[in-house]
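Standup notes, structure subgroup. Blocker cleared on the beta-D-galactopyranose input:
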Amino acid sequence: MKPELGVCYYPEHWPQDVWAEDAKRMVETGLTWVRIGEFAWGKLEAKQGVYTWEWLDKAVKILGDAGLKVVMGTPSATPPKWVVNKYPDMLAVDEDGRERKFGSRRHYCFSHLGFRAEAARMAGDMAKRYGKNPYVQVWQIDNEYACHDTTLSYSAAARLGFQDWLAQKYQSPAALNRAWGNVFWSMDCDDFAEIDLPNLTVTEPNPAHVLDFKNYSSDQVVAFNAAQVSAMRRYTDRDFVHNYMGIETSFDHFKVGEDLEIASWDSYPLGFLERFETNEGDDFKAKYAQQGNPDFQAFHHDLYRAVGRGRCWVMEQQPGPVNWGLYNPIPLDGMVKLWSMEAIAHGAEVVSYFRWRQAPFAQEQMHAGLLRFDRVNAQAQIEAKQLADELKNLGDISHKTAQVAIVFDYKSAWAWDIQPQGASFDYFKLVFEQYCALRKLGLSVDFIPANATDFGNRKLVLIPALMTWSEQLNKAIADFDGVVIAGPRTGSKNADMQINQPLGPNFAGAKVSRVSSLRPNVKLPLKSAGNAINWFEEIELSQGAEAVEFTQDGAPILTKTDQHYYLTAWLDVEAYANIFEILAKQAGLKTSLMPEGVRLRDMGTKQLLVNYNNCEAKFGDIHLAAASYKILEGLN
Ligand code: GAL
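Run returned:
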C-alpha cells in the first residue's frame, strides 16, 4: 500500500476565482485527495427539483484537472429548510420529548421513511451526475452518523418503526413479554401497538425494552445508510466510505460497515483528550493537552480497520486548535505530522485533513485549517508537506494481522450502558484500558467482531465484558489453540439480557455468584501488582480449574483451564500489564515494556516508534525528540 494525504474542502464557502489557486496549492502541499460536497444540499437543490449542479461540476473539474482525486459526500446531514417543510415530522425528538429544531445540522430522525427516501433520492441524483466522472473516485455517505447524539430519536416515526421491528422479532406479544420479563411490575402487553418508546417513564424502563430500542435504532442507521448506497450503486462502481467518530458506540459500526468498502474516522486527538475521562485524571490531561492521549488514536485506527475489513482512512485529521473541546490548545509542533504517520502505521490508506482553509464565519470560525482564513499557510500545512515528502521515500507499507486481538461488541456497550450496576462501569473504557495495557507491552492489536468465526493465526485473544457468547465465537474459541482471556462480565447474560442460568460465564472454570461495584476511591490491591478497581466478582470455581492471581485478601482474580483465563475484576493498567505480560509470553509473544508516552506499532517489515511526550524520550538506545517519531527497520 502506498499511503496518501488529502483534505476536506468546501468550494461553496469561497468565491469561484480562488478554487484554481486552492487546488494548485493542495497539489503543491503533496495532497492527492480532496473531499467535498457533504454539507452542500442547500447549494445544489435550494428548492425541490431545482438543481444547480453547475458550480459543483466546475469545482470537480478544477480540482481534478489539478491532479486531485475527489471524495464526494452525499449531503443528507444537512437537509435544507424546504425538506423540513415538506416533512415537518422528520425532526428527531429527544429523550425529554422535545423536537430538535432546524438551524444547525443532523436535524433528522433515522426512522422517518419519507426523509430516508428523500435522502436516497438526492444521493441517487448525485451518483447519476458524478458516478462515472473520472475525478470522483470515492463516495462518502452522510457525515458522522450519531454526531450530536442523533442515533436515538423518540419521535412518532420511531415509535411506529419500533413496534413493527418488535413484531418481526418476537412474532407474538406473549413471546415479547417472556423475553423482557414483563410479568415484573405488570408490564405485559397484548398488542405490539401498545408498546411505547422507553422514555419519560416514572423510573427506569425495563432494560430489555431499552436494549431492543437501541438495537432497533442502530438498525435504522444501517438501513438509512444502505438506502443511499443502493440508490447509488447502479450509477457508479466507485468505493463507498463513511466517516465514523471517536468514542461512539450508539450504533453497530460493523453492520453499517458491511455495506461500504472502506471505513474512515475523524481523528481529533486534542478535542478527544478533553472529552474522554481516564483514571489518570487532570494531571494526565495537562501533560498531554497539546499531544492527545497516546493510545486513543491508535485504538480507533485499529477498531475502524476491523469495521472496514482491513480498509481504513482518516477522513478528518485535526490540523490545529478545534472549536468544540472544553479547552482548545494549539498542538505541539510536530504533532500533526506524528498523528498522520501514526494513522498510516495503523493501516490508513489516506489521511485527510479537516479543513483546507479556516472559515471566518459561522459555527466553526474558531476551527483551524491547513491554511489560515487570510490564506497564509498554517503550521499544519508545513507538517503535511513534510510528511508528503517523507512518504515519497517511504515506499510501500505492508500490513499483517496482529498476533493479539480484542473482541469488540456494540451490543455489549448498550447493555452495560443500560444497566451499569455502578457508575464507573463503562464498556468502552474497560476495553480501552485493556488495549492500553497491551500497548504498554509494545504489542500491536487488532479488533474483531463478536460474530467472528475464527481467530486466524493470532496467539492471544481478549474478550472483555461481552454480554452474550455467540455461537460463532464459541466455535472460534474451540478451534483456537492460543490464549484466550475473558472477563470481567463476559458471558453474564443471555441474548434477552437476562442473567444466565446456570450461572455464567462458564469459562476458565469460573461461575460468577455475586458482583460488587466499587467506588472510584476504593481499590483492591492484588498480590502481584496493581489493583482491582470499579468492578469485582465473586466466583465459584469448577472442578479442574484453578485460580492463579488473587487480591491481597485471597479472592481469585484470574482463573484458568488450559489456555483459557477469566478475569473476575476490572484492573488498573499496572495490574493488566503485569498479567498480560505473563500470558502474552505464555502465548509465545515477545513483549517490550514501553516508556511513558512512547508507543510501538508493527507495520509488517518496519515498525513505527512514536513519542507523545512534550520532552525527549528514550527507547533502549534510541533517542526521540519531543512530539516525534522514528521508523525502525527489521526489529522483528
Ligand atoms: C467533525 C465534523 C466536521 C467538523 C469537524 C470540526 O465532527 O465531521 O464537519 O464539524 O468535526 O472539528
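Discussed briefly. The longest strand covers residues 531-541.
Next: hand off to the docking folks.
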